Amino acid sequence: MKIRQLPERLANKIAAGEVVERPASVVKELIENSVDANSTVIKIELKEAGLTQIKVIDNGDGISKEDCKRAFLRHATSKIAFDTDLFHIHSLGFRGEALASIASVSKVTMKSSMGDEAGTKLYLVAGKIIKESKSDARKGTEITVDNLFFNTPARLKYLKTIHTELSHITDLIYRYALAHPQVRFDVIHNGKSIFQSPGSGNRLQVISGIYGMQVAKNMLAIEEETLDFKIDGFIAKPEITRSNRKFITLIVNGRYIKSPALSHAIIRAYDTLLPIHRYPIVVMSIQLDPILIDVNVHPTKLEIRFSKEKELIALIERMIRDVFKKQTLIPTIEEKPKNMQEKVKTEQEKFVFSPFKEPEINQVNHNQRVVTEHIKEPQHEERLVDDKPNDDLEQEAISFSESEDDFNENTNEREGYNNEQERVPPMYPIGQLQGTYILAQNENGFYMVDQHAAQERIKYEFYKEQLAKPNGTEQQQLLFPLTFEFTTNEKTFIENNYDQLQQIGLFLEPFGNNTYAVRAFPGWFPKGQEEEIIRDLVEQIIQEGKINIGKLREEVAILMSCKRSIKANHYLTDQDMVRLLEDLRKTNDPFTCPHGRPVIIHFTYYEIEKMFKRIM
Q1: What would the DSSP string read from start to end of 332-371?
Q2: Record: fold of 203-325
Q3: DSSP SS3 for 25
Q4: Alpha-carbon torsion (197, 201, 205, 210), positive or negative
């Protein structure tokens, strides 16, 4: 006989390998059970990042004596009874695998009571009940997991340092504190409190406790409801970024999940407001009918499947963009407090009493126009923009074409510009700093504007709109054809995708061996960059299997705006500065360049007077 049924103990160990990967996995399963039990306070005590001991204490409904024993049986659950229940799951746990898996690779002590009589205490080793007795009548459940993986030492080899394992646990608890702000989470490590959420139901307070007051002050509320979805939460202003996507927290029906598709939708919604390789802080809670999702696709339940994912993605992108359209996203420079005590006091006052209100200031004279003398640019080892601009491009940057004039004059009619609630107030130039930054003022304070970034934004939106216009069969004919040599592999891809190339107006004619000739190209191709664009198209076909014309035009618009904008160390006349600032105000997103760098920095008069000690 070669096929045999595995013993229950061995089967549980194998199942534990899927569910219990590290101490954080144990914490996740136990706090999910506590949340399902309607707990309002969940205390997590750890020793050596959970490797020595994990204890989770809650004040939930508790478990009866009979159910305490059943809870450690494999696939024992109170959440589902029929096949149809799988399509209406409201709880975080439902499979009945967690406790059985945890107990099979550790030593577990469980105490639980429903509060009306003495509770039950069980002691298990490797999944087997060793001792049973009565416990006190405190309502709730306490589970202690000792010596995790004591009987599977090979698992211990894959665990990281105590610091790494603890970071996995705290990150997980942060997510559930954000998902359930009505629950107070207390985390104690080696006898020291390391985190406590307020449990007040205010998600912004949880964000403040996790990411700090400065982040909380710069979060924008989001809320949207359709027939299928209800979304709420907070998104950070584009000036608050991190180096990876881990700061995006997605919650679906109270469950923390990971979804690359939804995360990418959020990042796309920020568009050019984010600097390159920077990511936002987002906490998004999505409520929907459980029948629209399948949570039974991964052992850890971190991944789920949406039946209306495309509709949800479109809703998320539109919702975030709509929020930003109503905001003035100009970073404000604030004076740093001398000491931490002053900083905490200042932050708390602003957050609790008036987080976004500016103090009253005196009006300034808009007619005051002082232009600074030209200052010689000091030599820097590194600059963000080119120091020596091309003369032709400089001239084009100042002398806008007629089509761009029409574009700016009609900007008010374009989507995204709200004349009743101006996102950027009028700014009045008073000079220029080192031929790079426009200095301006108004009744709200003092502004510095990066002239290169500002015109990049203006030209980017102009080119993007022009390139999006349907060109039909409009072609730019060449007097002498362009020839391209491709590898055999590239030639095969071209032949297989020739129809796609023709659809965008690009015709590659065989010219012998692996060579192709191009005698005409679409009219929207930028002058002087035709060969580069054509090769990019072929490269897109090879890498993605199709041509993403929208992505290509986006890249072209960014490239053209960057190369054809005024550079650093270029001095402008008063008229040039006035026009540049006015054109900037008419754009859809005047706060960043296409690469996500800030265009405008704001100094309030209040902060300036504090720096000069006029206000103490």
Answers
A1: B--PPPSSHHHHHHHHHHHHHT-SSPPPP-----TT---P
A2: Ribosomal Protein S5; domain 2 (3.30.230)
A3: helix
A4: positive
Kindly report, as residue ranges, where domains of CATH 3.30.1370.100 are found in the chain.
Answer: 472-563
Please list the ranges in the chain whose pLDDT falls under 50.
340-342, 344-417, 419-420, 472
**CATH number for the segment(s) 340-356+369-374+383-466+570-611:** 3.30.1540.20
Contacts of 442 (CB under 8 A, 6+ apart): 364, 366, 425, 426, 427, 428
CB-based contact 284:233 (threshold 8 Å): yes
Backbone angles phi, psi at 267, to 5 degrees: -65, -40
Question: pLDDT at position 204, please?
Answer: 96
The Cα–Cα gap between 74 and 77 comes to 9
268 within 8 A of 318, measured Cβ to Cβ: no
Strands (E) located in 28-86: 41-47, 53-58
Residues of the chain with CATH 3.30.230.10: 203-325
Q: What is the CATH number of domain 8-196?
A: 3.30.565.10
Query: Which part of the chain has CATH 3.30.1540.20?
Result: 340-356+369-374+383-466+570-611
Token readout for 446 is 């003092």
287 contact partners, CB below 8 Å, separation of at least 6: 229, 230, 231, 253
Q: What is the pTM of this model?
A: 0.68
Q: What is the pLDDT of residues 316-359, one digit of tens each?
A: 999 999 999 888 888 876 655 555 444 544 444 344 333 333 33
Distances (CA, A) of 249 to 259, 294, 421: 10, 19, 31
Token digits for 506? 């690009």
Distance of CA 296 to the CA centre of its chain: 25
Residue type, 178: L
* 8 A C-beta contact, residue 581 and residue 427: yes
Residue ranges of the chain assigned to CATH 3.30.565.10: 8-196
- Concatenate the DSSP letters of all residues of 74-140 into one string: TT--SS--SGGGGGS--SS--SS-HHHHHHHTSEEEEEEE-SSS-EEEEEEETTEEEEEEEE---SE
In sequence order, what are the residues at sequence separation of 6 or more whose Cβ sits closer than 8 angstroms to the Cβ of residue 301?
92, 93, 255, 295
Q: Residue 437's closest CA among 566, 330, 558?
A: 566
Cα three-residue angle 266-200-351, rounded to 5 degrees: 65
Which DSSP state fits 224? E
CB contact at 8 A, 186 and 43: yes
Secondary structure of residue 259 in the 3-state scheme: coil
**468/603 Cα distance (integer angstroms):** 37
Domain 472-563 superfamily per CATH: MutL, C-terminal domain, regulatory subdomain (3.30.1370.100)
Q: Are 244 and 279 in contact (CB under 8 A)?
A: yes
